[in-house]
Structures are given as C-alpha cells and as structure tokens.
Amino acid sequence: MHFPENVRIVEVGVRDGLQNEPTPVDTATKLALIRKLSESGLRHIEAASFVSPKWVPQMADHREIMQALAIEGEKSVTTYSALTPNLKGLEAALECGVREVAVFGAASESFSQRNINCSIAESLARFAPVMERALEAGVRVRGYVSCVMGCPYEGEISPLQVAAVARELSDMGCYEVSLGDTIGTGTPLKAKRLLEAVTREVSVERLAAHFHDTYGQALTNLYTVMEEGIAVIDSSVAGLGGCPYAKGASGNVATEDVIYLLEGLGIDSGVNLAQLARTGDWISRQLGRANGSKVGQALMAKY
Ligand SMILES: CC(C)(COP(=O)([O-])OP(=O)([O-])OC[C@H]1O[C@@H](n2cnc3c(N)ncnc32)[C@H](O)[C@@H]1OP(=O)([O-])[O-])[C@@H](O)C(=O)NCCC(=O)NCCSC(=O)C[C@@](C)(O)CC(=O)[O-]
Asked: Which ipTM score applies to this complex?
C-alpha cells in the first residue's frame, strides 16, 4: 500500500455545505465559521460562490464574504477561494480581491443543464474566457467535474466521459481538477475504475477527490483513491451540505472523519482535530441540525 505522506484538505463546508441549508445563514455566522476553520489549521477554504442569487440564494452574500476575507491580503496563510461559473461571476470576484476561483462543469449533460443552464460543451466554452481572464489577473483556477460516479438524472456515467471533461479543464489551465461524486453513489471499485480512466488524461498529482457521503461510502472510496495516489481531499465540516440540483444528496464527507482516518494512517494534514470537532459542533448548533460527523459526535461526547 502506498499512501501519500501529506494530504491537503480543501474545506468546502461554507460553500458546498451552506449553499443547501433550508434556512438562510447570516454573513456574520459564515465569517465566524471561516475564522474557526482557519484557526483549526485548514489552509484552503472555499468560502463563497459568485452565482446567481436567484439560483442559489444562500450564496447571495458572496461580495461581503470575499471582501471581508481579502482584508487579510497577502499575509493570510489560508487560501479563500470562490466558485465563478462565468465572466460575470469572475469579474465580481476579482473586484473583491480573490486569489483563487473555481469553475464547475459536469460529466452528465442533464446535470449540466439543471445546474448551470447549458450543455457540457457550452460550459467549457464559457469557462475558457474565465480562465484566460483569471490567469491574466494572476488568479489560480481550480476545476470541478460533477457526477463522476453517477448522476441524479442519468444514472451511470462513463469514466471515459469524466476523463474527457477533466482533460478539457486541465488543458484549459486548471491547476487541479476535483472529481465530484455529487450524489455519493460511488463504491471502491467504481472509484478505482474512475481513476484508471481519468489518470490516462490528467496526472494523479493534479486531481482531487470530492466525495459526498449519501450512501455512507465516502471514507472507503477515499481510502481507495489515496492508495492510487490522490493527495487532495475536499470535505465539509460536520458533513454539512448537499447540492441544490441533486435531490436527496447528503453532504460531503465530514472533514473530522477524514482527519481521523488520515491520523490513523499516519498521514499529516496539519489540522487540529479537537479544535475542528468543536467547530463542527458549534456550526451544527448554530444551524439547529444534527452533527453529520461521526468522529465529531464521538469526540464531543468526551469533551
Ligand atoms: C450559471 C448561471 C448564472 C447561469 O444562469 P443563466 O440563467 O443561464 O444565465 P444568464 O447569463 O442568462 O443570466 C440570468 C440572470 O442571472 C444573472 N447572472 C448570471 N451570472 C451571474 C453570476 N455569476 N452572478 C450573479 N448573477 C448572475 C444575470 O445577471 C441575469 O440576471 P437577471 O437579468 O435575470 O436579473 C446559473 O445557472 C447559476 O447561477 N447556477 C448556480 C449553480 C450552482 O451554484 N450550483 C451549485 C454549485 S455546483 C456544486 O455544488 C457541485 C460541486 C462543485 O460541489 C461538485 C459536486 O459535488 O459535484
């Protein structure tokens, strides 16, 4: 077994998590959460989404969030990134001083239509000028591919289709492509086959795993892909979230659960698990929802 020595966590709870909360979460609570996550040692936090507030009202305060974080400027040890689906979103994000953005595509035509109102080909054509403008402004761009192990509308998705979209994003200039198991239907065998196909097009060092835990398989799938060389994991504190365009999808794998797994494997992530567990407990209370992290629940029962 060959696991990576270090794993970088991309904390997506504030964006992927909160975008799906039924009740509005105020900007001050989001900023307090972001600070606590950063203090626990997380060094990459996806903090906002410059999408249409009509489509995703929970992300309507993207400007306030990113402006508040930009005040930290170059001194910040934490990267705060934001989703930008088009040039309009990117320009707004640049005005707020972002240093990193992400474009998000899908391996499923139906999901692409429901999520961003265009086909896969149209989305890639839209991302090209976003990429060009971002790189010109010295801003790094990450890419997402949704539905890599299943689609809520089409069911099975071919790993070859995922590989083709990942390759396009990578060739366009994304420094990293994150593979989203949007509805959490992946299993270890599917994850292995997925990576076999995708790594023929994009090297494993430039891939990240973004697994939702709807079917309780996310940790097992992460273990499998780490064996194949994946060293970047997207996760969500307290397992917050879901996707507004994937009915029934539960949150991302909980960051606390991932850190516990990594510690058990002797892999360094730089995150203080006890502090993170307190943050997961805090935000769950703020939202009046159950803590979606098993590790978080277990640790908080002891504290
Ligand atoms: C992409 C659009 C905007 C296209 O939406 P559209 O309707 O096709 O766009 P449009 O260009 O025709 O514009 C329509 C309206 O939206 C406005 N608009 C246009 N662009 C923006 C923008 N950037 N920011 C703010 N407003 C914008 C624009 O100004 C206009 O406003 P109106 O004239 O009607 O008042 C829309 O479909 C959208 O916002 N979708 C949101 C999708 C989303 O946020 N999904 C969740 C995130 S993806 C995800 O969770 C998956 C991931 C990444 O986590 C990985 C995984 O788990 O799989």
From this structure: 0.97
Distance 169 CA to ligand 1 centre (A): 19
**Residue 242 CB less than 6 A away from ligand 1:** no
Cβ(279)–Cβ(263) under 8 Å?
Answer: no
296 in a domain, yes or no?
yes
Q: What are phi and psi of 34, to 5 degrees?
A: -60, -45
Identify the pLDDT of residue 244: 63
Query: pLDDT band at 23, cuts 50/70/90?
Result: confident
- Alpha-carbon gap, residue 49 to 46, rounded angstroms: 8
- Quick one: average pLDDT of 105-113? 98
For residue 3, tell me if it sits in a domain. Answer: no
Distance from the alpha carbon of residue 4 to the mean position of ligand 1, in angstroms: 36
User: Is residue 2 a part of any domain in this protein?
Assistant: no
User: pLDDT class for 182, splitting at 50, 70, 90?
Assistant: very high
Question: Does 210 contact ligand 1 (Cβ within 6 A)?
Answer: yes
pTM: 0.97
| Rounded distance from Cα 291 to ligand 1 centre (Å) | 29
112 lines ligand 1 (CB under 6 A): no
Q: Which of 15-29, 98-112, 189-203, 271-285 has the lowest mean pLDDT?
A: 15-29
Give the CATH number of the domain where residue 217 resides. 3.20.20.70
Residue 151 annotated in active site: no
Contact (Cβ atoms closer than 8 angstroms) between residue 100 and residue 81: yes
Ligand 1 in reach of 251 Cβ (< 6 A): no
Nearest CA to ligand 1 atom 37: 116
Domain count, the chain: 1
In a domain, 109, yes or no: yes
Look up the domain containing 94 and give its range. 8-302
For the chain, percent helix, then strand, then coil, each to nearest 5? 50, 20, 35
